[in-house]
Amino acid sequence: MPADERRAGRIAVTFNRFRLLTPAPRLAARNMTYIRIFAVGVLGLIFFYLPTLGHGYFNDDFDLIANTFQQWLENPFRVLGRPVWTLSFPLTNIVSTSSYWHHAVNLMLFAVLGVLCAWIIRHDKLPPIAYLLSLTALCHPAMVWPVSWISQRNDLLLLVFLIPAVRLHQARIGVVWVLLSCWSKAPFIFQNLVFAYSYLRRKRFISAALTVLGFLVSLYFIWQSYYAINVAAKAHGLYLAEKSGPILISITVFLRGIKILEGIFYTFVPVPAYATDILFALGVSLLLLVLWGYLTFLSIRNWPSVSSDKRSRLAVYACIAVSLSLPYAFGSGLRIYVPATLFFYLAAAFVIPDNSRTRVLLGTITLVYLLGSFLNYGPVLTGYHDLQNPVSFEGRQVPAKKWDILRQDIVDQFVREEFSESLEHKAVD
Fold first, then answer.
1. How many CA atoms lie within 13 A of 85 on its CB side?
2. How confident is the model at residue 27 (pLDDT cuts 50, 70, 90)?
3. CA–CA separation, 152 and 272 (whole Å)
4. CB-based contacts of 422: which residues, under 8 Å, 6+ apart?
5. CA-closest candidate to residue 364, choices 132, 38, 196
6. What is the pLDDT of residues 386-426, one digit of tens each?
7. Phi/psi at 386 (nearest 5 deg)?
8. 339: closest CA among 172, 166, 219, 97?
9. How far is CA 130 from the centre of its chain?
10. Which of 179, 232, 267, 298 matches a 20 to 30 Å C-alpha distance to 284?
11. Angle of helix 154-168 relative to helix 99-123, nearest 10 degrees?
C-alpha cells in the first residue's frame, strides 16, 4: 500500500476516534462538576450540623447509652429487634460516654453516608444527575433527626449498610450487608423481600433463605417488644380491635394504606417541616408541589428515551424505596422518612432529564429543603441535659425554644384544634 494511502487511513481512523470520543470529555467534565457540587454540599452540611455536638442527651438516649455489652449479649434483639443499633452504643462507649462523642459518631455516620452515595452512583453507573438528587435528599428536613439526635442514628446505620447491600448483593458477602441493614432499624425490614426475590431469580437459595430468616426474626421481636404491647394496651387506639369483623379489618387496612401514601408524599413535600405557621407550611408545600410536578412532567416526556437497561435498574431502586415506605402503615413522623427519601431520589435519576432546566428546579428544591432543616434544627431542644455521665440526671437543663411550635405533628394539631373549635361552637348553639 502506498505511503499516501496509509497516511490517509491513519488520518481517517484518528478522525473517527476523535469524533466518537468527542462527547466523553464533555460528559467527564459534567461529572466532575456534579461531583464537586456534591462534595462541597456534603461538607457544607457537616459544618451546618457541627453545633449539634453540644446538644447533650435527650429522651431515650439515657436508657440506650447506659446499655452494656453484657445486656446486649443476653438478648441482642430485645430493644425493638434492632441489634446493630443497640450494639452501636456500647461500642461508642469504649471511647467515651460523653454526649459530644456520641453526637460526633452520628455526624461521622452522616459523612460516611455522603461518601457511600458518591460511591454507589459511580460504581453502579447511575446517571450523573444522581449526584444532585442525592444531595437534595441529604438536605431533606427529615435528616435533622438522625444527625442531631443520638438515639435516632438508626436511620444512618440502616443506609450505611443498605447502600453496600444494593451494590454488592450479588457477591457472597452481600447477604451480610442485607442483614446488617435490616437489623439496624426494624420495622424497616421489607427490603429483605426485594433482595430475597433477586436471590431466588439467580438460584442462590441459601442467600434467599438467610435474607427471609433475618426478616422473620426481626418481625417476631418487633411484635414481642413493641407492637404486641401497644395492641394489648390499646396505646394508640390502634391497629386491630378485639372483635374485628371483615368490614373493620378492611377499613383498618385502607387507612394504613393511606398512611403509607402520606409518608411517600412527605418524602417529596415535607409539610410538617415548615409548620411554624400553618399558612406558611401550605405556601411552601404548594411551591414544592409545583416544582416536583414540573419535574414529573419533564420525566414523563423523557420516558420514551430511557433505555430498557435504565428502566430495569430504576425498578430496583424504586422497589427498595417502596419497601422502605411500608412501615409508615404502623407509625408516621417526619423523622422516619430518611431511608425511603434517598432511594426514591436515586431512582428518579434514571428518568429525570439532565439539562439546565432540571438543574435549576433541583437547586430550588434543595434550597427550600435547607430552609426546612433550619426551621427544625436541633429537634431535641425541648430541654436536653449537658451530661458527661449518662446514668446521672444531675446535669443542668438547658432552656430552649418550645418544640411544640416546631414539632413534626403540628399539622395534625392544627386539624384537631379546628375540629375542637367546631365542636365547641356546635355545643354553644
1. 28
2. low
3. 18
4. none
5. 132
6. 343 444 434 334 333 333 333 334 444 444 454 445 444 54
7. -85, 75
8. 166
9. 15
10. 298
11. 20
